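Before relying on records like the one below, remember that each one covers exactly one chain. Contacts with other chains, cofactors or solvent are not represented anywhere in the record.
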Amino acid sequence: KEITGEIVESGKGYRIVKNKGEKSLTYLVTLPKLTEDEKKLLGIIGKRAISEINVDPEAIHNYAEKKKVFTVKVMELINRHYPEIKQATKLWFATFIVQDMIGYGILDPLLSNDDLEEVMLIATHVPVYVYHRKHGMCKTNIIFENSEKAIKIISRIARAVGRRVDASTPLLDARLKDGSRVNATVAPISLGGPSLTIRKFKADPFTVVDIINFNTLSFDLAAFLWLAIDGYEVKPANILVSGGTGSGKTTTLNCLGSFIPQTNRVLSIEDTAELQLPVNHWVRLETRPPNIEGTGEITMERLLRNTLRMRPDRIIVGEVRGPEANTLLTAMNTGQSGSMGTLHANNSRETITRLVNKPMSVPTIMISALNLIIMQNRFTHKGKTVRRITEVTEILGVEDGHVKLSNVFEWDPKTDSVKATDVPSRIKSVLAEKRGIELKDIEAEIARRKTVLEWMVKEKIHGVKEVGRLVNEYLIDPDKFMARVSGKKTKTSGAKTGKKGSKGIVDLFSTSAKKEVIETTPLAEIIRVESEKNPIYNVKTPKLSKEDKILIKEIETKVIDKLDIDPRSIKDKAEAESLFTDKISR
């Protein structure tokens, strides 16, 4: 059926149209019109390609490269056996065959568009749907006429992650190698035929600059959250981002991760790894479902308990929904500041209700360790689907078994913006008290950070690493960074940071960092003095040739075989080193 209408957007291989009388848009993939004979020939060539092309798809990890290799092979096969076919038809045949051999079949054109967040097969004989980052939900012109092709794609995905999908295990929830999340169902639980939902992984995820541009949050709120998250070097806040399914909780959590200082050791735990944090010291952990035999499961709670033994500065839990909530709140109560996570709830009060009831079962008295709840929702506003932070709530404590909450920011539907309320912020007061400064100084710091964020938006700063780098530059030397923002020149020597009494540190990320270290900071002098006191600092690693490295390996093997001394039997380390050095030299 030919679909026409007003073209809203078009690109390579697709167009988005608005049909008269319909509210939703249609995403049209450009597809050739094949005759019945061409369809039969396509099937014959496809079978021939499977039998004749001897390339292991698993040996090529990059999908784009894999696609390129197989396309070349298929084109060679077509040119060899069917040279009379028109070139344009050959290219279409090669595209379809490669998609069917190594890709996602007719879903491939959808998955190749980075503007599509999700691809959804809901049943056979009905259109596949997509969720566009800008235009929202759209139906497509792609339809699975039977279950076989859909099951083939689902089974291929399952095999790639070491799982199986059939009548005995009809549900699949997994992560692809590129980070995309997949959920699939088949009969008997899927009544309309196989269903498949792919939430695509964004290689370059949104940053705080992006969600400010999207109006998800305001500059004022972003600056406040920045201060709350890094804690002004004294008390990072424990935060939960709550909201409904698809409200953008994980996206916001990832954006806020850019405010974590680079010096922090961060441990993240997720069911499906989605976070991309611009921190250097980051340990990523992912839960593991049971294997085909029903064993080998590693739960969120088990991983969380393990992280507490790994000396984390911060713990980030992708989604809190079970017994791990109790473990997380216990960690917060024992001094684990700066922890963050997401939770499904419709408002802040419901977030607390979910925490204290089964299956989380967090004792009410422990809730006071949580400092902040960020509520995010997805809804229709003035005819458009939007994602907004609708309230930011501080936890004031527990009184007579009741958790006291206070909204410090709320969304105003009239202006479509998140605004600060007149309620005093406890977080601001705590930071002022712990730093020994006045509340007006905290407000001034938030204003400075707001200016930095406004500058980032103005300069169109993009990329998680770039935003994280600039945030870190500010934390290293606020005065110098503010001078950069205002376009003024300043002396780097003796610059003050936001913390009273601390001295400035050179901007190690600037292009002239090496020169500045020598000329404007005491760092080089400190290293020189320490090197004189501790000669070990001056030891240089020798440059070894390839032959030297091979010889060292041979000697190492012989030493292990020949030495009959157990190093554990010698308690004194210096004595052990001396003895072993003598033995090895001989």
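The two ends are 86 Å apart (CA to CA).
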